[in-house]
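Here is a protein:
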Amino acid sequence: MISGLLLAAGAGRRMGKPKALVDDWLVRSVEVLREGGCDDVLVVLGASAEEARALLPADQRVVVAEDWDAGMGASLRVGLGALGPEVEAAVVHLVDLPDVVSDVVARVIPAASARGLARAAYQGVPGHPVLIGRDHWDGVIEAAVGDQGARGYLEAHDVRLVECGDLAGGADVDRR
C-alpha cells in the first residue's frame, strides 16, 4: 500500500495566510495524490486546522501537527508516525505546489518499495513529491527538524531522481 502524505500545516507568513486556505490548493493537492495512484491520502494540518479541515470531504483522513510552527519537520514526523503498518511507502507532497499534476505522482510511484527513495526532479533539480519507503521512516523522522524536513536525510542517501520537468515546474509558491 502506498499512501499520499500531504503536508499543509504551515502559517504561510509570506503568503499572508495558511497555504491550505489558498484558493483550491488543499483539495486539489489531495486529488493529485489520489489520481496519481496513492491508495490513501493523509493530510497533515496545523495553522488554522479547523478552517482547513472544513474544506475537505468529511471522510478525508487528517492529522494535526500541534507543533506545526516548529517547521516542516514537525509535520513530516507527525504524518509518517500516523501512517498504519500496512503502508509500504509514503509519497510526500506539499500543498504549495499548485502546478504539480497527478502525472508527476504517477511517474514517481513506480519507484516504490519498502527500501525505496525517489523524488521528482524538474530540469534536474530535486523537488516534490518525494517517495519514502518504510525502511527509511525512522531515519527521516529522526532527521526531520525545523524547515529542512527530510532534506538532510535524502542528501545522505541514494535517491532515485525521476525527471518530471516536462509535466510541471515544481516550484513552491510563497507569495501571491
About this structure: The mean pLDDT is 92. Residues 9 and 46 are 4 Å apart (CA to CA). The first strand starts at residue 2 and ends at 8.
